[in-house]
From TrEMBL:
GO molecular function, one term: pentosyltransferase activity
Organism lineage: Bacteria, Candidatus Collieribacteriota
Keywords for the protein's UniProt record, in alphabetical order: Cell membrane, Glycosyltransferase, Membrane, Transferase, Transmembrane, Transmembrane helix
Protein name: Glycosyltransferase RgtA/B/C/D-like domain-containing protein
GO biological process, one term: lipopolysaccharide biosynthetic process
Keyword Transport listed: no
Topology versus the membrane: Multi-pass membrane protein
Spans through the membrane: 7-26, 96-113, 133-149, 155-173, 226-247, 317-341, 377-395, 407-428
Record bears the keyword Membrane: yes
GO terms for cellular component: plasma membrane
Broad class of where this protein is predominantly found: membrane
Length: 568
């Protein structure tokens, strides 16, 4: 066997890993430019626990972290603690776990696909492996996936959850041959559920299908499997128990209550309030309307129109000019679906792909946001696999084309997509979307030492939780902040959702600026965005501009001003 053929799969896998690592780590602390408040909250709470053992609200080692009006899953913040220990608190360090697990997901997907589609007796290097390049194609397509790259470059818990979901699935199929793999599978699934709430629905559903599918194999060796399964279940229950204990609290339910299509009355269709009678009530009651909305939202996640054209409508989520997948992958998706439906040999692989394909949209479809790529992130796996299958399967049955030509076409598509991705991420995204990433607050903090320390500073919070950005970039002493700001007692941490509108950070007060008292009556500095402090208002209140911080497109993002009250 030629050296090039023997080691080609290893070389290609390493190349996919390098490409994926580049897109996830290059300028990680600079792009996206700025820092979203959820990222700042994850980072500062980890910093606070690292320094004091308490989060920003004074809660010791929370099961879930209180974040503004809702709660964040704990895994990401706890993973950040050792990162902060070695790298300090920064944009780069906060995004590092997501990028790290995003890169590891590439070889992990390769291993998982290889396990399901390539017979062990054939081996990866064997020409008998008809789909020997399939795992490599899947890994490369994940490496250049706009969807996966987006969430790997930002501090989103969903990316961590996806990694452990995939890891748990890998161990689960290994457990069919070696029962003790049930233990790492169970632990991986528990971490996945604790990392992001969507997995609390996805993981149990996936396990139910697995048990039904492999019930015969599980029962046939029940005695040998019983001990590993029981130990796995007990340990998983113990680890997940603290989360179970707070599931009924208002804090745990806060986000789902605010977003669920079943928990909110929503907007009724036009004319729905006009009708009367039993038939009208049966057709237009809230549960029926919510079910119809669920089915509509669910179908959008399987729609090629959203996958390859519209994408996610969230301002921070799509890269400029790009959908969830590349347009050229659309025919591959259709081809992959066709061949996978007809496939009769890869039964295990087929069951997994279609199970995850149908389960993954459920948590997202239960919320009001249309086509949320964050809540449906596990869907990237089956859809990538279908697209990859659509490339490799015709490759297998169309031998007329030379291998060099096939590789050349794929290489050109990957290179073209990578170049386009590079331009979109590192140029267009920062230019067009910087205002959605709270750009400029780091510059504000750097300017504070140049201000008169005798004068107080008022930071406007009327359009967002700017206090957390100040805490983050100042690396404000968590113990001092906890003493200066009391919001909720430890006993009411998960039950009381009340919030304070004013935050104190030494001589800095973060609140909504009140025109008159804050602008005319006291000598102080004001920090606000371009909407809160327009040129007309600056002139009308005789304010002095100390510094203007522009967006990358040149427009004003934030202003630091000084008041000039008239002598009394």
């Amino acid at each position: 066997m030629k050296f090039s053929n023997k080691y080609l799969p290893v070389i290609l896998l390493f190349l996919a890993f390098l490409v994926g690592a580049f897109f996830r780590f290059y300028k990680l602390g600079e792009t996206p430019v700025g820092l979203y408040v959820d990222e700042a909250s994850l980072g500062y709470n980890a910093y606070s626990v690292y320094k004091t053992g308490l989060d920003e609200y004074g809660k010791w080692l929370p099961v879930m972290f209180r974040s503004f009006s809702t709660f964040q899953s704990p895994i990401y913040s706890y993973l950040l603690i050792p990162v902060i220990h070695f790298l300090d608190l920064s944009i780069f360090s906060v995004r590092l776990p997501s990028a790290f697990f995003g890169v590891l997901s590439i070889p992990l997907l390769y291993l998982f696909v290889k396990q399901l589609v390539i017979p062990a007796k054939a081996g990866i290097y064997s020409s008998d492996s008809k789909l020997k390049y399939f795992p490599l194609v899947a890994a490369m397509f994940l490496a250049i996936s706009p969807w996966h790259i987006n969430y790997s470059r930002t501090a989103y818990e969903a990316n961590i959850a996806l990694f452990f979901l995939l890891l748990g699935s890998l161990f689960l199929f290994h457990a069919l041959k070696r029962s003790w793999f049930f233990l790492p599978a169970a632990l991986s699934f528990v971490i996945s559920m604790m990392a992001y709430r969507a997995e609390i629905i996805i993981v149990p559903a996936l396990l139910v299908v697995f048990v039904l599918r492999y019930s015969g194999a599980l029962i046939s060796e029940f005695k040998q499997r019983l001990t590993p399964i029981l130990i796995s279940l007990v340990l998983s229950f113990i680890i997940f128990l603290p989360t179970l204990q707070i599931m009924g609290t208002p804090g745990f339910r806060a986000r789902s209550s605010a977003l669920s299509i079943f928990a909110t009355s929503g907007q009724r269709p036009w004319g729905a309030n006009e009708g009367k009678g039993l038939v009208h009530e049966l057709q237009n009651n809230h549960q029926v309307l919510a079910t119809r909305e669920f089915l509509s939202l669910y179908s959008s996640y399987l729609s090629p129109r959203y996958m390859f054209s519209l994408g996610d409508s969230g301002p921070r989520l799509p890269y400029a000019g790009m959908g969830t997948f590349f347009v050229w992958q659309f025919p591959l998706y259709l081809i992959g679906l066709y061949f996978l439906i007809k496939e009769r040999d890869l039964i295990d692989f087929k069951y997994f792909v279609f199970t995850l394909l149908l389960i993954s949209p459920i948590p997202a479809a239960l919320t009001r946001d249309p086509y949320s790529t964050l809540r449906s992130l596990p869907l990237v796996v089956p859809q990538i696999l279908i697209i990859s299958f659509g490339l490799v399967k015709p490759w297998e049955i169309l031998p007329a084309f030379s291998s060099k030509l096939k590789f050349s076409v794929v290489a050109l598509l990957v290179i073209f997509s990578s170049v386009r991705m590079f331009i979109s991420i590192f140029y267009f995204n920062d230019y067009f979307n910087s205002k959605f990433w709270n750009y400029g607050w780091e510059t504000v903090v750097k300017e504070i030492p140049n201000l008169n320390p005798q004068l107080p500073i008022v930071v406007d919070s009327s359009r967002g939780d700017s206090y957390i950005l100040m805490l983050f970039f100042l690396k404000y002493d968590p113990a001092l902040y906890q003493r200066e700001n009391f919001e909720v007692s430890a006993s009411d941490y998960y039950t009381s959702l009340t919030r304070s509108d004013t935050k104190k950070l030494g001589n800095i007060t973060v609140k909504s600026i009140v025109w008159g008292p804050d602008t005319d009556e006291a000598e102080q500095y004001l920090v606000a965005d371009y909407l809160a402090m327009s040129e007309v208002q600056i002139d009308a209140h005789n304010l002095t501009i100390i510094k203007e911080i522009p967006f990358p497109d040149g427009k004003v993002a934030l202003r630091i001003l000084k008041t000039n009250p008239k002598p009394k």
